[in-house]
Specification:
Blueprint lengths: L1 H19 L9 H12 L3 H7 L1 E4 L4 E2 L4 E2 L1 H10 L4 E3 L9 H18 L5 E4 L17 H7 L2 H16 L5 E2 L23 H16 L15 E4 L18 H17 L4 E4 L3 E2 L2 E2 L4 H10 L6 E3 L4 H7 L7 H11 L4 E2 L4 H13 L5 H17 L19 H14 L18 E4 L7 H4 L11 H4 L6 H9 L4 E3 L21 H8 L4 E4 L20 H4 L1
Helix pairs in contact: 2-14, 3-13, 4-5, 6-15, 7-8, 7-15, 8-9, 11-12, 12-13
């Protein structure tokens, strides 16, 4: 009996060990691993640290001429060997040709100075949404409402195709935080509150973006960057980048579940939650970043910070004694690439000193750089750091637009239809009211042409507002447009500001109408600028 018990315990021990080392989602490629090791052996410490840096494109841009600055490129790439850049050139949506021109120049400089290509990333959140003339899809919350797995994958494939058409191989998507607090200003980016729905949608998005050959991602696919690991969507305050209070069980069983599913589906990179949970900052949490992700899932992908979040360990969270100490905490926790986004000099100096002082090991540096280089090899950037974008002849095509239309239709949710009011009959007199009735901005949301989406009316003039669509459908003579409430055109983009209401005009016009369509709600926002104090409509709109 004692012998049997020993055997059972011995078997259980090895079973537990086997659970902690599952088969990796992406089989190791000996050819790629050999190239990485050869490259690592020839790299200086400065070159390795440079590969761990990601800067915004503004760090190498001449602000006066809207072009890349050779002097800044010499500093960023030539001196500090920076390996990654992100964001829209010149701060606003560009045509794919502009992206290609800018990125080709960056890649030529990277190869000349370092011999290693740059990896360029964009927030292409709902389609190639930073690119002019591209196909825009419904936001994540809409895609979850449709819950069409095949369609989600197809939309992601189109996003990858049109992002590659910009010479960009990497997007910071999908957003897969559980949106469980409607005050959270990124609710609409997520796939909603349910862990299962998030996992299902995220897996399809990852597969659509990356394709099937994860060690050799082809010319029509890109790397995903699943985000934001994890618990970002349930801040106690409801405000962006603020602490959560999630139990260990909920963290493991609910918030971690979509990320685990996406990694097992082959996600190549991951971005970390900007905040902290129960007082522990995610960017300094070795148990989660190294333990749960890299070790427990046997995952060889790359972890990148969110915007300037290493500094936040010092300035906001006060868990580091200095910015340098914050770098120590983050890198030792498992961060592979730091989105700085513009202070490359201090980051590189500080991290080098930390290595020389023994506070960060060369083993940890090499592990981080392996992961960065592995991603670049998998994306084929060493063979093709830039490419001819003319072959992407389906970019912005009618075929792709039909897919976006299908997604929009499937995501609609009809709450009630009393008296069979819908569909509206021809000849119906319609009063159209509300601040969102004749604006493109509110139809697209954030991450549309710009971060806050405030430029949609400028860039989307070829498309119809609700007012224009109703005029086309029912005839201008049947549409009475009296908004009653309108937004202030604020140069500082205080999106919530409204002009003095003219409710009386709308009330008077209602006497001439058969039905009223009230387009009420919010203007667009994204991240911290969208922090809400309450969930009420504005007093003007409620009136």
């Amino acid at each position: 009996m004692k012998k049997l018990l020993t055997t059972l315990l011995f078997g259980s021990f090895f079973s537990a060990c086997a659970e902690r080392q599952p088969v990796p989602a992406i089989p190791s490629d000996p050819e790629i691993e050999g190239k990485i090791e050869k490259l690592l052996k020839g790299m200086t410490l400065e070159e390795k640290i440079g590969q761990m840096c990601e800067l915004t494109i503004g760090a190498v841009t001449d602000k006066n001429d809207n072009k890349l600055s050779e002097a800044l490129l010499d500093t960023v790439i030539g001196k500090y060997r920076v390996g990654s850049l992100l964001n829209i050139p010149f701060g606003v949506s560009q045509k794919k040709e502009v992206f290609a021109e800018v990125i080709t120049q960056i890649q030529k400089k990277s190869l000349e100075e370092i011999g290693i290509p740059c990896i360029y990333g964009l927030d292409q959140i709902h389609g190639a949404s930073y690119t002019q003339d591209a196909t825009y899809f419904p936001q994540g919350i809409n895609m979850a409402a449709a819950f069409n797995r095949e369609l989600t994958r197809y939309c992601a494939e189109i996003t990858a195709y049109e992002t590659r058409a910009c010479c960009v191989p990497w997007t910071f998507a999908p957003v897969m935080d559980l949106g469980r607090d409607p005050r959270w200003p990124r609710m609409w980016e997520s796939f909603g509150e349910d862990a299962y729905v998030n996992a299902q949608m995220a897996v399809q998005a990852v597969r659509g973006l990356q394709g099937d050959n994860l060690n050799k991602v082809d010319e029509y696919h890109i790397s995903s960057c699943i985000k934001h690991f994890m618990g970002y969507g349930v801040p106690v305050s409801g405000k962006d980048r603020t602490p959560s209070s999630i139990t260990d069980i909920d963290l493991r069983e609910k918030h971690f579940a979509p990320f685990k599913a996406a990694i097992r589906a082959g996600a190549l990179s991951l971005m970390v939650n900007s905040a902290n949970n129960n007082g522990v900052a995610f960017h300094a949490n070795k148990e989660l970043l190294t333990g749960w992700l890299k070790e427990d899932l046997n995952w060889d992908g790359m972890i990148v910070t969110d915007w300037n979040d290493i500094d936040n360990l010092y300035f906001r969270d006060h868990i580091a004694s200095s910015k340098k100490d914050a770098i120590r905490l983050a890198v030792n926790a498992g961060i592979d690439m730091a989105m700085i986004p513009s202070e490359e000099q201090q980051f590189c100096i500080d991290l080098k000193e930390l290595v020389e002082e023994g506070a960060v090991s060369m083993k940890r540096i090499d592990d981080a750089v392996r992961r960065v280089l592995r991603l670049k090899f998998r994306l084929g950037l060493f063979e093709n750091p830039y490419w001819d974008i003319r072959k992407y002849d389906k970019f912005g095509s009618r075929e792709f637009a039909e897919v976006a239309l299908q997604a929009a239709r499937e995501s609609e949710v009809l709450l009630k239809n009393e008296g069979e009011l819908l569909p509206l009959r021809k000849g119906t007199k319609i009063l159209l009211a509300g601040p969102n009735a004749n604006a493109m901005r509110c139809l697209n949301g954030g991450w549309s042409y710009s971060w806050q989406g405030e430029l949609a009316d400028e860039f989307a003039q070829a498309y119809n507002t609700i007012y224009e669509a109703l005029c086309n459908k029912f005839g201008t003579e049947n549409i009475i447009y009296e908004p009653g409430v309108t937004y202030v055109a604020d140069p500082n983009d205080n999106w919530w500001k409204e002009n003095r209401p003219e409710i009386g005009k709308a009330v008077t016009a209602a006497g001439r109408a058969d039905v009223i369509i009230a387009c009420i709600g919010e203007n667009t926002y994204c991240e911290t600028p969208g922090n809400l104090n309450d969930l009420n409509l504005s007093s003007n709109q409620k009136e």
